[in-house]
Amino acid sequence: MNAIQTIAARASTLSAAGYFDHDSDEVVPSPCVSVCRMSADGSLCEGCFRSIAEIRGLVHGRRCHPPRHLDAAACAGWRARASQPAKHGAAMKRITFYLDFISPYAWLAFERLPEALEGLSYSVEYRPVLLGALLQQQGNPGPAGIPPKRDWTYRHVSWLGHSLGIPLQMPARHPFNPLPLLRRALACSADGSINRFVAGTVLRHVWVGGHDALDPARLDALAQVLAPQLKPGMEPQDAAVKTLLRSNTDAAAARGVFGVPAFGVDDKLFWGLDALPMLRAWLEGDAWFGAGWEASAQVASGLPG
């Protein structure tokens, strides 16, 4: 059963239970079935039948996930949508989103992605990686390792959040060890990918509110929110979870990932928040990629050695 069939069956079950009756005062459960993938024509998410505008509204409300409850008026449309045949168009592209929760740019890109790719046919696979290991492989200390750059980065991302209308408050301590968060997220995965709810929940834990990301009480609260998402038999401290993180990081490095956020699609890799327009251009078939992609990287180095 695919996502559309699943959500249609869910709508039918809720309808039979009386949730859509005009005189019902029951809270209508969310239509979300934990599939974050746009329809072929880019008009609706196949996992909740929300439009881009509706998704954006939920994003700014910081809630778009299975436990969310919608009132009857807000949900009136999705039962009808679920009964409509799926539209077909261009072949759907699959994007791998590499992220580490320690990165403020990953948070900003996570929030911007639906709007940046509005109207296109794509699905997203979220892959947590250990940024520190990727930086170490390149001999890169990262922004936090260069004091003036650290100051600039924190000012820049804070301004970007303000400019883009995305809540972003620097956590009480940064950088910090992201392993507890990465492992917590990957305990919700069977194959190294996590759904958008898990990714967004952990990113918000770090980047909204200005709190300590590793505060024990907050980590306990995060664990409670993610508990329904845990895979059977998986816990953050398990060897299998550590293996998933190591495999994700090694695979990302093999693909050429050197930082986050990074987006892999087809044989191309795009890095950074400011690469989202370029990613969109690739998905739209921009002719520049025919020769410009390879030619622009062939410039000879003028440095010795």
List the helices and strands and how they pair.
Layout: H1 3-16, E1 28-29, H2 52-60, E2 69-70, H3 72-82, E3 93-99, H4 104-116, E4 122-128, H5 131-137, H6 147-164, H7 179-186, H8 196-207, H9 216-226, H10 239-255, E5 262-265, E6 268-271, H11 276-283, H12 292-295
Parallel strand pairs: 3-4
Antiparallel strand pairs: 1-2, 3-5, 5-6
Count the E strands: 6
The strand order across the widest sheet is 4-3-5-6
Round the Cα radius of gyration to an integer and report it.
20 Å
- Average per-residue pLDDT, rounded, comes to 85
Query: Percentage of helical residues?
Result: 40-55%
Outline: globular
By secondary-structure content and strand pairing, the structural class works out as: alpha+beta
Summarize the main sheet: 4 strands, mixed
Residue share in β-strands = 5-15%
Uncertain residue segments:
59-73, 82-88
Order of helices and strands: HEHEHEHEHHHHHHEEHH
Q: What is the count of DSSP helices, taking H or I runs of 4+ residues? A: 12
**Separation of the first and last Cα atoms:** 57 Å
